[in-house]
Amino acid sequence: MKEDVTQILNAIEHGDPEAPSRLLPLVYDELRSLAAIKMTRESAEQTLQPTALVHEAYLRLVGGNREAQWDNRGHFFAAAAESMRRILIEQARRRKTAKRGGDLVRRNLDVDDVALANSDHETLLALDEALNRLALVDPNLARLVELRYFTGLTIDETAKVLGVSPRTTKRNWAYARAWLRREMEESD
Amino acid sequence: MTERTIFLQALELSSADARGEYLTQACGNDDALRQAVDQLLDAHELPDNLLDRPVAVSASDQAGRTSEVNSVAIGTLGQPVGITESVGTEVGRYKLREQIGEGGFGLVFVAEQQYPVRRHVALKIIKPGMDSREVIGRFEAERQAVAVMNHPNIASVLDAGTTKSGRPYFVMELVRGVPITEFCQRRQLSLRARLELFTDVCHAVQHAHQKGVIHRDLKPSNILVTLHDVIPVVKVIDFGVAKAIGHRLTDRTVYTQFAAMIGTPLYMSPEQAEMSGLDVDTRSDIYGLGVLLYELLTGGTPFERERFNTASIDEVRRIIREEDPPKPSTRLTTLGASPSTHSDKRQCVPAELSFAVRGDLDWIVMKALEKDRSRRYESASAMAEDVKRFLSEQPIEARPPSRLYQLQKFAQRNKAAIVTASLLVAAMFLGTAISLWQAAVAVTERNEKDQALQKAVRLQREADQARLQIEQFAKRMKEANILVTSGRAHADAERWGAAYADFTAATRRQPNYYNAWSERASLQVRLGLWKLAADDYAQAIELGVPTDNPANWGIPQLFLFNGDLESFRAYCRDLINQSEQRSEGVSIAVIRSCVMSSERRFDVQTFATRMEEMIADFDRFPDARRHRFDRHDRHDDREDREKDASKPPSEEHLTAAKETPKKDRDLDRDRSAEPDQTASQPGQNDADSADAVSQKDDPDQPDESAKPPWYCVFYPRGAALYVAGLAHLRADHFKLAVKRLNESLDEVEWHGRSIAYPALAMAYHRAGETEKSRQALASAKAALDQWADEIYSSPVGRMPVMWIDWLEAQLLYREASILMTGFVPADDVRLRRVRQRAVSLLGERDFSSDEI
């Protein structure tokens, strides 16, 4: 497992066009199971920090290689951001359906129980849709938001992942942030 | 132009007029565009943007409950704090302009004050969950005190009140700065600059304390740094606020209140975490300062954020009250080793820090972080003083001010410095005395008055010059020290060239400073540049480098390896003399060095006997090495060592030494027993000896209370056996040598055990066992070959075994090869390449090939 992700990251580095698509499912699975573990093991009052989750996933999948470069990490974070988004959206959708159906089934704690307050599910789904529309305007802006919001990267870190300057990142962020807000207010 | 470019351009313009003007011009007649941009700009200004904090989620069982805990925890996705005020709202006589912050307590805005003066202020609205009247009441109670604070490093709290929706708010001087930790990180401030900023914080806190105001919530986000021109200025904000918001917690409210503070327990003092109602005093702020300094030095808080995030509230409180955090230097070392934090930019600190922090700064921080508040610094200014003392290289107050420590501190600066300085000081005093005397003579002998005065003036000038020289000397010393520290940091990071350059610069800056030479030597040793290392060590020895420091074990081997027999002999002789002066038995390390040469200059019989005694101790305490990380009282160790030296030969010792001529043995016993007789009370020695012997008679019943001697704890048994074997070889006890060397090869826990092969080959050879001797030599060659291969294929500076082991293996193999085959082994091409690679990394081109 460990070798796999490192190899894929290297393949991406060497320009293998197939590699990113192989990376995503691995990262997704890891994050999902990590989140589930956290939720069952730890106290309920605690909040789950996606940043911590993603960093932990990185350590588990790639290992503590000190020389790991940021570019190399960048691919990982991109995959992680997309995974986090998927996990949370899927789960918000399921919640919504469950609520509509009105059947509350008691299960063991699972990643599905990673929850946002009920109203937050709506917000998150709205954000997801707005993000999809933003991706049509400029896919890079959508990626930027994914990285910032779903993995909690700072402006500087995001800039490194996307390979643009922090200044540009900051400007793009301001635009994407306002754009999404406008979009979500309008669709309300 | 697209809405994007127009929007971004408009953001750059802060005044509303300029913005409007620009928009009109940029959008022209395109109303739709103008509307789109306006909407974007509105959206930009709206508070509580969902995206302002990354998504955070909590376990679902709790999600439905609308408790305080959860609304805080999930706050990032909802409307977080239930504050209805937003940009544009008027609060009292202030108009909210822009939201600049959000925390567990509420929201912070830039607000415009209309009268009596028009100005911008910071306005903090407290979130629901607190009784406004109480908050305001408590603030009013302290308002007087807060108002009299007047300090350049304190942002004043100007006003407090209640919003229309009933939330308390505070109005403060607007500080546009960044948290101090962020400032230091972004600019990669040097240690000195960080410490200077820190002392400013201390002075601000001290001022408040003198006015009777305790902050209670010191943390980086409350300590901002702004730039005045280019000078960074610290501003501590929120004085008086924490007391007004916080109140004594009852059990009922503990959990919600604590949850409300999530994000801050990292900076909370033990007495605050205890929530016992024990009143918080100025010493809680000292603790806060301690945490801050910790973070400035290491980039992390004493307890890790990660850990608090995942621990329950009770656990967090327990940790704060009971656990001792690692010392800053320890934290820096572990940080460097842990890649998870490596990626986190905030936690990178300049490499310079890690070494400088060890010692004094550790103590300063740990004193401020004492759990028992009476053991902390008495005041913020006392802490600032200590930091200043550190900066000016004076002994600090933290940690018990023992004389030894102060002396150590002084001696640290270097032997040469002390000698030179005392000479110069003496010269200065003499000069002054003479000039005074001259002046007196001048008064009585008026006819010589002018001449005498002239002389006095001249002498005074000389005294001044002497003082100047001392000052210059101290300055150069300091510079050399900084270079050495920086070189070490580079070496740790395997930046060999930079490390070498720093050490070299240090040797030039202060050629009398042995540390510079010995540090450069140890760098060269790591790179396998034996000749260069030996030269530098020779220099360091000349300047008085301490020989009993384990870092310097192996210097004789280095001399021997380079064929410098004279230095080898002199150094070994020195080591033996020192052991004798200290009335200690000769240590394993010393014996190890001395028996490395085949020439019998030293009393090898004694060495063999002494080694057998120590091996017997190893057998008595088979588990000693497990205690190696226990706390060891140095004083006791010393006593043990002395006792051991005085022990009469045991039975094992006698068997081991049966080939030893009796005269030698007695001599040995007499000499080692002598000092103890003077030191111990009459009769006691005999009792001890009887004890020791009876223990050895019955090895199945070791004395539980006896402590293993230090060498059993700190020295690998395998290495001791190897040294014993070598000692026997040199003393012509070939069978015993074979026995001990074979035993050492069986010590799988000893990593360097293969170095016993060449010695074993010689022992077999001398014992007449030709076949076995050939086999051992072949094993020796194979081991050397494998190591050479590993060294050749690894990056420069990585050795598979300790350098001393590697050096000895080569030395002894050379000796064995000459003894058994008559040939000197050929120079290994791989090792030559490795040396060339290392030299090229050092960036020096002036080494000729035989110098390396």
TrEMBL record, chain A:
Top-rank taxon: Bacteria
Domain (RNA polymerase sigma-70 ECF-like HTH): residue spans on this chain: 3-185
SUPFAM superfamilies (alphabetical): Sigma3 and sigma4 domains of RNA polymerase sigma factors
Transmembrane residue ranges: none
GO biological process: DNA-templated transcription initiation
Keywords: Sigma factor, Transcription, Transcription regulation
Protein name: Sigma-70 family RNA polymerase sigma factor
MF annotations from Gene Ontology: sigma factor activity
Pfam families in UniProt: Sigma70_ECF (PF07638)
Entry coiled-coil feature ranges: none
Record InterPro entries: HTH_Sigma70_ECF-like, RNA_pol_sigma-70-like, RNA_pol_sigma-70_dom, RNA_pol_sigma70_ECF-like, RNA_pol_sigma_r3/r4-like, WH-like_DNA-bd_sf
UniProtKB/TrEMBL annotation, chain B:
Domain Protein kinase: 94-391
Keywords for this protein: ATP-binding, Coiled coil, Kinase, Nucleotide-binding, Serine/threonine-protein kinase, Transferase
Positions with a binding annotation for ATP: K124
Region called Disordered, residue ranges: 324-345, 629-708
Biased composition (Basic and acidic residues): 629-674
PROSITE patterns: PROTEIN_KINASE_ATP, PROTEIN_KINASE_DOM, PROTEIN_KINASE_ST
Record bears the keyword ATP-binding: yes
Entry-linked CDD domains: STKc_PknB_like (cd14014)
Coiled coil segments of this chain: 442-483
One Gene Ontology molecular-function label: protein serine/threonine kinase activity
Superkingdom of the organism of origin: Bacteria
Biased composition (Polar residues): 330-341, 675-687
Segment forming the signal sequence: none
PANTHER family linked: MITOGEN-ACTIVATED PROTEIN KINASE KINASE KINASE 20-RELATED, SERINE_THREONINE-PROTEIN KINASE NEKL-3
Protein name: Serine/threonine protein kinase
